[in-house]
Amino acid sequence: MIGTIRWNLVMASLGFVITTLVSVSSNLWSTSLIRGLIAGAIWFALGFLIRLAAGILKSPEQGRLEYQSTVDTKSTSGYNVDLSTPDETDTLKDLLRNTPTENEPKAVSHEEQEIKFEPLTPPRFVSKLPEDGEQLAQAVRHMAKE
User: Exposed (0-12), middle (13-18) or buried (19+): which is 46, by Cβ within 10 Å?
Assistant: First the structure.
């Protein structure tokens, strides 16, 4: 772990103060203080986790040496990661220069394609009103009952 318990206390006090100030506007003082104490305890515990993670990230060699002493393996594979990407400019240039072969389908330009435009002709919806007034009255009575 990196640092001392002072970091935990600083984080706990910041969590307490911020939570108390935010909650005092909408709660009673006692409720705000209780919530501040709970937040301070949570931030105190989070301080330990943050210090532990910082210690692991700061000295990964120390952790690796402790692990190797407990395990009887001479292999160092998996400890180092190569983050560099290979140079692929030549491959990309070859791909751009290549012409299509006989096996590959030939790209057809828009001018060579015969494009026919046909507008959509959706069917028209036509409602037929009954010519008989009696049918219309019965439909209105039926809908009024439901």
Answer: middle
